[in-house]
Amino acid sequence: MTYVMSGDPDLETGQAILNGLPGAGADIIELGMAFSDPMADGPSIQAAAIRALDAGVTLKKTLDQVRTFRIEDDETPIVLMGYYNPIHHYGVEAFVQDAKEAGADGLIVVDLPPEEESELCIPALQGGLNFIYLTTPTTDDGRLPRVVEKASGFVYYVSVKGTTGAGSAAVSDIDAAVKRIRKHTDLPVAVGFGITTPEAAADVAAVSDAAVVGSALVNRVRDNLDADGKAGPGLVDEVLGFVGDLAASVRKTQSKG
Amino acid sequence: MSKPNTYRPNTLRDGPDETGHFGIFGGQFVAETLMPLVHDVAKAYEAAKADPEFEAEKAYYLSQYVGRPSPLYLAQRLTDHLGGAKVYLKREDLNHTGAHKVNNTIGQILLAKRMGKSRIIAETGAGQHGVATATVCALFDIPCTIYMGTKDIERQAPNVFRMKMLGAEVKPVTVGSCSLKDALNEAIRDWVTNVDSTYFLIGTAAGMHPFPMMVRDFQCVIGDEVREQIMEAEGRLPDTLVACIGGGSNAIGLFHPFLDDQDVKIIGTEAAGKGIETGEHAASLTAGSPGVLHGNRMYLLQDDDGQVQEADSISAGLDYPGIGPEHCWLHDMGRVEYVPVTDTEALDAFHALTKLEGIIPALESSHALAHAMKIAPDLPKDHILVVNLSGRGDKDLNTVAHAMGVDMGVNL
Q1: CATH number of the domain at A2-256, please?
Q2: Exposed, middle or buried, B95 (CB in 10 Å: 0-12/13-18/19+)?
Q3: pTM confidence score
Q4: How would you class B115 by CB atoms within 10 Å of its CB: exposed for 0-12, middle for 13-18, buried for 19 or more?
Q5: What is the pLDDT of residues B126-149, one digit of tens each?
Q6: Which of A85, A143, A162 sits opposite B192 (nearest CB)?
Q7: CB pairs under 8 A between A and B
Q8: From A113, which residue of chain B is nearest by alpha-carbon distance?
Q9: Could you say which DSSP state residue A204 is in?
Q10: What ipTM describes this predicted complex?
C-alpha cells in the first residue's frame, strides 16, 4: 500500500505518479489531500503538502486527479487521506457525493476520531464511501470496540506514537497489536507510520494484511527535485521504481508465507 | 415579579455540553493517538474540580504567589481625558509574570502534577504564556519545552530570554507563518510523540475539549473579582466590559461571570492588523468562517479551499487565525459584540495610557483599551466601563520602538 500526496510536486507529475502506481505494484493507493496545518505529519509529508499547495492543488483538483486515474484503472482502490477542514469547507454532503462520483473508495481523516463520527463518518458511509479508522498504541482494549464499531474497508494501525515518518516499531510489537485488533474486528488490518524500506514493508506485511509506505515514498519525490524545486527528469521513474522494490519484497514474503 | 427558589433561569454559563460543544463550536477533533489522553485530562479535571484540596492549593498559589486579587483601578486621568464614561482597569498586568496567563498555568500545573506527568510542553505567541508556563515549571521542578514561532521569537526577545533563564527549552518553529498557529502544530506533534510522559499546557481557551472549558474556568477569577470589586467601589455592576481576543482566554475570564447579567454590555476586540480591507489581520470573527483546526470548530481565517490563512497583527498574542469556541458561540447568539481594532489604534492607546496613567500596557491589552477610548467619550459620566488590562507592555518595547522608527540601540 502506498501513500502519495496529490499534486506533489506539481499537478502533472503527481498525476503521472498516481497513474503509474498500480503498474509498479501498489495494491491500494492512499492519496493525500494537502492541508496547510498537517498536525499529525512529520517533516516529509509537511513538505509534500507545502509543495502541492504551492503548485496550486486544491481539494477539487485532487478529486480531478482521481477522476483522471479512473479513466485507465477501474479496479485499484483509492483511499483519500487528510484533515477535516478542507472537507468541512467544501461541504460534507457535496464532498461525499463528488468523491464517490470521482471514483474514490474510502476516506481516512486524521482529526476525526469516533467522538466526531456524525461529522463525516456517518455521511460517508451513507454515501457509499468506506470510512477507515486509525487505531494506535494508545487505543486500549476498552476503547478499541468504539473505534472499530463504524470502521469499514480496513482498520489502519498507526504503529508508532508519533507523527508520520518518525521512528519505527518492533515487528513483534506490531504483531501483538494486530492480533489484539483482530479480536475486535474481522476487517483487514493495514499498518503504517515508520515503514521506510522494502525489507521493513515485507516484515510488517507478514504479520498484518498490508504495510503502508508514505514518508519514504514522498522523500523520493523530494530527492528528485531540481535546484528550483521543480520535478527533475527521472522523478516519476524513481518513485515508481521504489514502489516496485516495495511490492517485490512484500510479495516474496507473502509467497513464502 | 419574584420567582420560587427552585426556578433555574436559562443560563449562558453552563456550557459546553458533555461532548465539549458550545452550539456547533468546540468538540474533539483530535488524532486517535491523543484521544485517550484527552479523555484522561477531562476526567482528571472533573475529579480535581470536585476536590476541595485542589481548590485550596490553587487559591493558595493565586494569592501568595501570583498576588491576587489584582486591583480594579479607576483610571481617573484617562477618564478625565476622555470626558465620558468612568474607566476602570482590571490590573492583570500586576500579576506575577505580568499577565493573566499565570491564572491558567497555576491551575493546569497542579492538574498535571495530580496526573503524574513528568514533562510539560506549551505553545506561545507573545511569550506571556510561555513565561507563565516556564515559571510554574520552575516552581514545581518539572522540565518544560516551549514552542514558539521564529517571527515571535524575534519580536518578543525579552520573553524568550526570560523563559530560558527560568529553565525552559525554547524550540523555534520555522514552518508556516512562524507564529502562534505553527507553534501549536508543533506542540501537538510533540504531544503525539511523547503522549505517556507529557502534559500539553494549552494557554488559551481554545483547542480540544476540555481545554476551552478548563482554561475559562481558571481565568474566571478575573470576572469573579471584578464583580466583587465593582460592587464595593460603585455598589452596582458595570455597564460595559471590554477585553481583547486572540484565542480569547483573558476575555472569557472577564466575560463569563457576567454572561447572565443582560444589562451588562460585553465587547471583545479582535486584531484588525493593518486593516480588514488589506487582508493582513487576525479578525477571525469579522472576516472568517467556521472551520476546524487544533481540535475544535471555531471561526477561522481560511481560503476558498479550506486552507488556513496566516494571521497578521502587531501584537504577537493576537496573531492567530482562529478564536476560542465559546466566543464563536457568544458571537453567533449576539450576547457579546466583537469589534476589530487596528495596529495603529492599538499603538495610539498604548501611548495614551503610558502617558496619562504611567501604565505601560501590553499591545494585546492596548486593543481593548483602544476600543474603550473610542466609545467612552460618547457615554454618560455615570457609565461604568471596565477594561481588562490583561498584561504589561515591557515585552513590547522593541515592537513599539520599531513602529516609532526608533532604534533603541542608537537614537534613544
Answers
A1: 3.20.20.70
A2: buried
A3: 0.95
A4: middle
A5: 899 999 999 999 999 999 999 999
A6: A162
A7: 118
A8: B32
A9: H
A10: 0.95
